[in-house]
Design a protein that fits this description.
By secondary structure, the chain is an alpha/beta fold. The chain contains 7 helices and 10 strands. Helix 1 packs across helix 4. The two termini are about 20 Å apart. The structure holds flavin mononucleotide.
């Protein structure tokens, strides 16, 4: 069976993983690790399963919460997997290597790795509408090649990947807040993966635990949450050059 394991706060990572697994064309079980902690359960994989493990890139790294949840809740025993770092058209830096090492450490046999582009979840004009139709076709073809590689079970060498260890230092991201448009529906508080927004006061946010995943912005039915205009402009300017050209999806196999 295919186990599609994602950490996808705003859906871009899931779109990439969906395209890859649809190319494999087998029964799929979906495991989403970006959910409120009460919904996260332990999953034990069989040796015969093939896992597609996808996470977004934050500052060239895998979000610490994604690494923690993979380590604490996913049990593998030589299970074959493809690791997938999904980034917003700037760069994935050390993230693919970090996901490779994390999954190897928890007992996976990593047979393939993918760096793929999705819309930038803070500055949506970068990587806008990606994965697009061309990306989806390419990712489905990657999926077919991963299926073939799974049949041989040959491990992908860590040295095949870009990225360095020790990894880049992690950076704190922006914390979204609510505007007057907030109607108090509480969806953001219920869906925050770390419980950073108190249900009793949706205008407050615990900056110490917010992971800057932008989930609250993307799910708000009233577009009431944002990182603020000034912060958004500063981030857009800081990454403008890095995001200027269309980046390619890559498969390492
Ligand atoms: C805090 C933060 C940091 C990010 N850092 C990077 C980065 O270093 N490189 C990049 O290309 N995209 C970066 N992105 C964009 C995300 O990697 C990209 O939009 C990804 O598809 C988000 O996944 P999701 O849609 O599943 O939430 C960042 C996004 C956030 C929220």
């Amino acid at each position: 069976m295919i186990k599609q394991i994602t950490f996808s706060p705003t859906g871009g990572t899931k779109k990439v993983a969906d395209a890859l697994t649809s190319g494999i064309n087998k029964e799929i079980e979906y495991i989403e690790l970006c959910a409120p902690s009460s919904e996260i359960a332990t999953t034990t994989l069989d040796k015969d399963d093939v896992a597609i493990i996808a996470a977004p890139v934050y500052g060239g790294r895998i979000p610490a919460l994604a690494v923690e949840r993979l380590k604490n809740t996913i049990k593998a025993d030589g299970t074959k997997c493809a690791v997938v770092a999904v980034y917003g058209n700037r760069a994935y830096d050390d993230a693919l290597l970090e996901l490779y090492k994390t999954c190897s450490e928890i007992g996976f046999n990593v047979i393939a790795a993918v760096g793929a582009v999705a819309e930038h979840s803070i500055v949506r004009k970068y990587g806008a509408n990606r994965p697009d139709a061309d990306d989806i076709n390419e990712l489905m073809a990657f999926g077919e090649r991963i299926k073939d590689a799974a049949a041989t079970g040959k491990t992908l060498a860590e040295s095949a990947l870009n990225g360095k260890f020790p990894y880049k230092k992690t950076m704190a991201g922006p914390t979204p807040t609510a505007s007057k448009k907030c109607t108090g529906c509480g969806l953001c508080a219920k869906q925050c993966p770390v419980g950073a927004i108190p249900l009793t006061d949706l205008r407050k946010v615990n900056k110490d635990i917010c992971i800057s995943c932008m989930r609250c912005i993307s799910i708000c039915p009233n577009e009431a949450r944002s990182v603020g205009k000034i912060m958004h402009t500063l981030i857009a300017l800081a990454i403008r050059n890095g995001c200027a050209e269309r980046k390619k999806n890559e498969l390492f196999i």
